[in-house]
Amino acid sequence: MGRFVCIHGHFYQPPRENPWLDEVELQDSANPYHDWNERITAESYAPNAFFVESSELPAGFVERWTNTLLAEDAECGECPFFTPCRGYFQWPGRDYDCAGVKTLFHTLQQAADELRRDLAAVAPVRGDNSP
User: Fold this and answer.
1) Three-state DSSP class for residue 23
2) Burial 40-54 (b: 16+ CB within 10 A, else e)
3) Is 130:3 a contact under the CB 8 Å cutoff?
4) Pick from 9, 18, 102, 118: CA 20 to 30 A from residue 69's CA?
């Protein structure tokens, strides 16, 4: 039987309210939004909420979507992580820059490879023959 590792993350957003004013002050670095709460909601949570609500997709939707991306010669066709991603980050915003996601996938791939090596190294000690 194979071994599997699941990595699940929650990206914590600290409170940004000024404790003396009990309000979020203008944050220039979040431009064009008032503050980072608004920016993260608009750029991350809202698009993903749309996708979650679209979980009742018609049969074959993902396959048609990925075929469309590949036919358009989008950057996905050259991406080494296309198989696990399947163009998710291009839906619904086609102009999304996947550089950060690719870096994350690469880091996770390296960690998984290291974990496989570590498990293989301790398997003989434990008397376990599976990698």
Assistant:
1) strand
2) beeeeeeeeeeeeee
3) yes
4) 9
- Write the single-letter amino acid at 131: P
Residue with tokens 């996905």: 76
Nearest partner of 102 among 76, 66, 72, 74, judged by Cα: 76
Question: Helix-strand-coil percent breakdown of the chain, rounded to 5?
Answer: 55, 5, 45
Q: CB neighbours of 78 closer than 8 A, spacing ≥ 6?
A: none
Distances (CA, A) of 89 to 25, 85, 94, 114, 122: 31, 8, 8, 26, 37
Residues 30-70: pLDDT tens digits? Answer: 899 998 888 877 777 666 555 544 555 566 777 777 777 77
Q: Tell me, what amino acid is at 28?
A: D
Output the pTM of the full model: 0.44
